[in-house]
Design goal:
Blueprint: H1 4-10, H2 14-28, H3 37-46
Bound molecules: zinc ion.
Zinc ion (ZN) binds next to loops.
Length: 93
């Protein structure tokens, strides 16, 4: 998982990447490996080679909500009010 700052450095504009990936998949199919400089930067930074460049759209930590105060796991979505791991509820403001 990347911080917002790391994500900006590695991926740049996620909307632009989304459309590049979508266009690539429509032309070559989703099983064809897509070379992309952002995927190379991600691998260099983290040591993890993603199965497909598309997964770069799912590696930003802030997309998974705050950490649960009870168990420390992410709430998994920005709108979640109940921890999927331990069931701890967030107080609604
Ligand atoms: Zn929890």
């Amino acid at each position: 998982m990347l911080t917002d700052e790391e994500y900006r450095e590695i991926v740049g504009d996620p909307a632009a990447l989304y459309f590049q990936v979508k266009r690539f998949i429509s032309r070559h199919g989703e099983r064809t490996e897509m070379k992309h400089p952002a995927a190379d930067r991600y691998r260099e930074r983290t040591g993890v080679a993603l199965h497909h460049t598309f997964w770069l759209l799912h590696v930003r930590r802030s997309d998974y909500g705050p950490d649960c105060p009870a168990c420390g796991k992410p709430y998994r979505t920005l709108r979640a009010t109940l921890c999927a791991e331990c069931g701890h509820g967030l107080e609604l403001k």
